Amino acid sequence: MVQPAALTQGWPDDPVPLDPASAPVPEYGSGSLGDLLPTLVAGQGVPGFEARISELESADRNCVFLIDGLGWEQIKAHPDEAPYLTSLLATSRGGTGRPLTAGFPATTATSLASVGTGLFPGTHGLPGYTVRNPDTGELMNQLRWKPWTPPQVWQPYPTVFRLADEAGVHTAQVSSPIFQDTPLTKIALSGGTFHGRLSGEERMDLAAEQLAAGDRSLVYTYYSELDGAGHRFGIGSDAWRGQLMCVDRLVQRLAEQLPPRAALYVTADHGMVDVPFDEDHRIDFDEDWELRAGVALLGGEGRARHVYAVPGARADVLTCWREVLGDRFWVAGRDEAIELGWFGDRIDERVYGRIGDVVAAADGDLAITASVNEPNESAMAGMHGSMTAAEQLVPLLEVRS
């Protein structure tokens, strides 16, 4: 029986699936986090490196201040809380007023490895928060380094810091003492001397001292508390805004102490998205039989998932995830995601099996949680990992002496 026009008018069309090829791939090779240190040390004359970010001018002394979770869009949205950072927006990326891209996924372990090695995720081998270890079949948490895996086997390439130090550049990291001996620090940020300081103010003062300690210097300093406030309370919270105000003061404190012939670059590992606590925005994998069908392991994090299928189920899992999530997530098979350049222009053989059989990246303020197996991560208000502008775009604010 034909439905009367009055009943059929206004019925929504079927949701249009997102084409994985439409995902905004990071600007690998010319404007991503992994391009920053190679550009800086090339300008300092370190052999084997070339300037990839064409907009940057060289300096004898370079300081990189990485603020965990400080996305480009979050700075622009909070001029009152961050007046000094806001005043520097026009300096970003060599005075173009444009941001960098973090890399995929936009998450701390991946981004810090990209920064420190000058390589992209498919090469350095940290392509997510948790990924499968092909040698053991277990999920490897690359931020917390659990279960234990030999660091130099997991990530064998030398850091830019180490190569700069060997070339005679005075190289130092100034961070919280708790990070000094972590495996992530060793494989991503080691080289030269590590200086542990508890307070942000102490770190700024010591970073300025270390910057002045050599004719050619490369200094890295880090602040994590903004990210922690975002995860716990969300980027719309008073706690997060208070941390942003603190960050703004720290950046100005460091900038005002720069020695001659120095450049300070303020950047971040990712931005953040607040995900509402309701069923429309949080899809619970542990409660969804369709998404669980044929899945052996769920890796990654809420907004950037690696999905590992049981043997023989890869095609079915990809089809199911596209049917269930394809209008809200970019969903690609492993080879498709690699071909599209999501993880960079090269995939090392040892890294191939760490990438999910299916990779799903969120569009909008959505997440795939796992309330049973990931209770802490599932309770986070703010999340990151995907390729949206709020997560991918990070500043490269510049102050020169």
Briefly, what is this?
The protein has 401 residues and is an alpha/beta fold. It has helices at residues 5-8, 36-43, 72-77, 83-87, 92-95, 108-117, 121-124, 151-154, 160-166, 183-188, 200-212, 225-233, 238-255, 289-292, 314-325, 334-339, 349-352, 375-378, 389-392; strands at 61-67, 100-101, 130-132, 139-141, 170-175, 193-196, 217-223, 262-267, 273-274, 282-284, 295-301, 304-309, 329-333, 358-362, 367-369, 382-383, 393-394, 397-400. The strands form six sheets. The chain has a six-stranded mixed sheet with strand order 6-5-7-1-8-18, sandwiched between helices.
Secondary structure layout:
Elements: H1 5-8, H2 36-43, E1 61-67, H3 72-77, H4 83-87, H5 92-95, E2 100-101, H6 108-117, H7 121-124, E3 130-132, E4 139-141, H8 151-154, H9 160-166, E5 170-175, H10 183-188, E6 193-196, H11 200-212, E7 217-223, H12 225-233, H13 238-255, E8 262-267, E9 273-274, E10 282-284, H14 289-292, E11 295-301, E12 304-309, H15 314-325, E13 329-333, H16 334-339, H17 349-352, E14 358-362, E15 367-369, H18 375-378, E16 382-383, H19 389-392, E17 393-394, E18 397-400
Parallel strand pairs: 1-7, 1-8, 5-6, 5-7, 10-15
Antiparallel strand pairs: 2-17, 3-4, 8-18, 9-16, 11-12, 12-14, 13-14
Characterize the structure shown.
The structure is a single chain. 33% of the residues lie in helices and 19% in strands. It has 19 helices and 18 strands. The longest helix is centred in the middle third of the chain and has 18 residues. The chain is globular and about 60 Å long. The N terminus is likely disordered.
